[in-house]
Amino acid sequence: MPTKDPRVDAYIAKAPAYAKPILTRLRQVVHTAIPEIVEGTKWSSPHFDYKGIFCSMSAFKQHAMFGFWLEKALRESLSATDSRALAGLHHLESVDDLPDDKTLIRIIKAGAKLNDAGVKMVREKKPAKPMPTTPPALVAALKPNTRARATFDNASPSFKREYVDWIVDAKSDDTRQRRVETAVEWMAEGKGRNWKYEPKK
Question: Which structural domains are found in the chain, ordered by start?
Fold first, then answer.
């Protein structure tokens, strides 16, 4: 007998009318494919755990979706036909959009094998943002102030970027100049752009 989480029942009950049969069937098939699945909720949506985070389903105003935590690895492990069926699970407007139960179970069991093998999600590293050009007004204002210039020169790229972006985003020349003066004043005291929000030591 599958273990049901009442929070998932409540989620389905509150879902739009079109989504109720979709979510109900997905839930049933997940339990059929993996009897030991553990229901729960994460990020306000129903989630199913199997040896770690496994799969989830969500309902929106006009479509529902079903996806896997290791979706990329799963897609690569499936046949072309099942891979297309998996992609179709991202936009479900009717229960008729779901593949047949055999296909769904095959996809779910293939996903379970990845968790059995201990496969982990590999997050792609985003390339570092290039350092924006320091505004000439800031360069000029830093020159005569040794302490502020030392703070800026020795700071991390993110520290510099916060000041540079703040100054560049000014809507008028007057505002830009005031921000330059404030930036130099704060940097002379060794402060970052958001020093007011930093935890006190």
Answer: 6-116 (3.90.1150), 136-197 (no CATH)
